[in-house]
């Protein structure tokens, strides 16, 4: 179990070993979209599944654990 305790917030965020593995995979790619995130989460869980997006919302609120970017639309 890992504990992320940012300076700006009074609370802390507990991360499991699987959470840390997923975060390391995301860091290796540098950027992942929703489909890639589901694929990486399936790899970590060792069975086909979808990533529970409220977890992502929690991770992006904690000042630097993950940074969420807006989806861009490309027109050709």
Report on the structure:
This protein is mainly alpha-helical. The chain is 45% helix and 8% strand. It has helices at residues 17-29, 34-45, 53-61; strands at 2-4, 13-15. It has a two-stranded antiparallel sheet with strand order 1-2. A hairpin with an 8-residue loop joins strand 1 (2-4) and strand 2 (13-15). Helix 1 (17-29) crosses helix 2. The longest helix is centred in the first third of the chain and has 13 residues, at 17-29. The radius of gyration is 14 Å and the shape is globular. It starts with a strand and ends in a 15-residue tail after the last helix. 5% of the residues are buried.
Topology diagram in text:
Elements: E1 2-4, E2 13-15, H1 17-29, H2 34-45, H3 53-61
Antiparallel strand pairs: 1-2
Helix pairs in contact: 1-2
Relevant terms:
76 residues; mainly alpha; 3 helices; 45% helix
Strand elements, count: 2
* Rg value: 14 Å
The main pleated sheet reads as:
2 strands, antiparallel
Order of helices and strands: EEHHH
In whole angstroms, how far apart are the ends? 46 Å
Q: What's the arrangement of strands in the largest beta sheet?
A: 1-2
What is the helix fraction of residues, given as a range?
40-55%
Low-confidence stretches: none
């Amino acid at each position: 179990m890992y504990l992320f305790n940012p300076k700006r917030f009074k609370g802390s965020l507990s991360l499991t070993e699987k959470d840390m593995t997923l975060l390391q995979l995301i860091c290796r790619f540098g950027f992942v979209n929703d489909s890639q995130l589901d694929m990486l989460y399936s790899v970590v869980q060792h069975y086909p599944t979808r990533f529970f997006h409220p977890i992502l919302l929690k991770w992006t609120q904690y000042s630097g654990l993950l940074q969420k970017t807006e989806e861009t639309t490309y027109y050709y």
